[in-house]
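TL;DR need structure tokens for one chain.
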Amino acid sequence: MCCGQKRSELRATGTPNYGALNLHYSGQPQVYVRGSATGNLYQFSSVQPVQPVDPRDAKFLLASRLFRLAR
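>> reply
TL;DR here they are.
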């Protein structure tokens, strides 16, 4: 894939996935969290408690008791 194709793919998919970690949210209400390292917006709810999160953001979320690594 040449550079132009990579730029087009990045625009189409948003931010690149750097080996995302699946995090499980254990809170009840729906929550939106902005990643402190990437600025990505993550949405967690009781309906979709597991979401892929960039590892650079995951370390800060895991410091909270509301998130853990999904199995």
